[in-house]
Amino acid sequence: MKQLSRLLVAAAGLLIGSAALADHHGGGMHEHQGKDARMPMFGLFDENKDGKLSRDEVQKGVDKMFADIDANKDGTISQDEMRAHHKTMHDKMQSQMQERWKAADKDGDGALSRAEVDAAKMPMLSRDFDKFDADKDGKLTADEMRNAMMQRRQGGAAPKAQ
To answer: What CATH number is given to the structural domain containing 152?
Structure first.
């Protein structure tokens, strides 16, 4: 029972950390992943895609995550390994967000209009479009998105237009 409790605490920590990391990196940029977009680890752990996690699925998922993070395969995860894993995940998500942005930017101007956001099926970004459009020009620039994400990470609201 004690081992199960430790397993569940570890799984919860990894799931929460991964979900926070995913949300921390753009939230609305990942809607294309379907029903598991807000809980990416759930979708990865749910091997049989029944919408539920069995103890076995959680155990396998945690074991895989642990093995992925434990770079030197010594059976422990150091702070350096966790930082390196976080950086790798950050870089991967950053790249995915840039690809998603470029695909949505149909006119190639480097910014996204509301129509482009809607056409790209980015409902969270569409919902927050006016908050993120700091200069109220009807387009979201990469700088506006970076500023909005920085504000979100710092616990504040999106920047307001001057």
So the answer is: 1.10.238
